Amino acid sequence: MIRKTFIPLVLGLLCLCGCNSNRIPGLVPAEGVVIFEGAPLPNAIVSFSPKGNQGMAGTAITNENGQFAITTRNRNDGLLPGEYAVMVLKTKVLFMPTEEENEAHMERTGQYMEPIIEQIVPDLFGSDQTTPLTYTMSSKGDRKIVIDFTAKTTSADTP
After folding, report:
1. Global confidence as pTM
2. Disulfide: which of 77, 82, 134, 139 matches 156 by Cβ 3.0-4.6 Å?
3. Mind listing the pLDDT tens digit for each residue in 123-157?
């Protein structure tokens, strides 16, 4: 009786430990660097949106050297092969009101104060409908993706 229960239990535990049901078949490594205006772009959001709604989107945040590793479902798991629109978002908060400032402003005007945010990367690059940046991921993956662009980029500069 113990043997009949024990064997299926062990097999089930081995499957749970050795199988990752969250893993997406076909993902390949996707790592690289973002260069904006000739310098690495730290703390930017980089998104790869599949063209033609074929596949799955991947996202990353660049490190202090502008480097990134794409996440589709699990951390740094990569991208599916295919064509992507590449979006890059980077902002800087110039002013963030304190709670006291917000409350005083609300009493005077009936509205909360808005933070002042500067777009470092133009809005053009923040939408899959408008970005000129594209990338084609091969079935072998790529650990040397270079997204090199300027505010005046109007066509894809990525390989």
Report:
1. 0.76
2. 134
3. 999 999 999 999 999 999 899 999 999 998 876 54
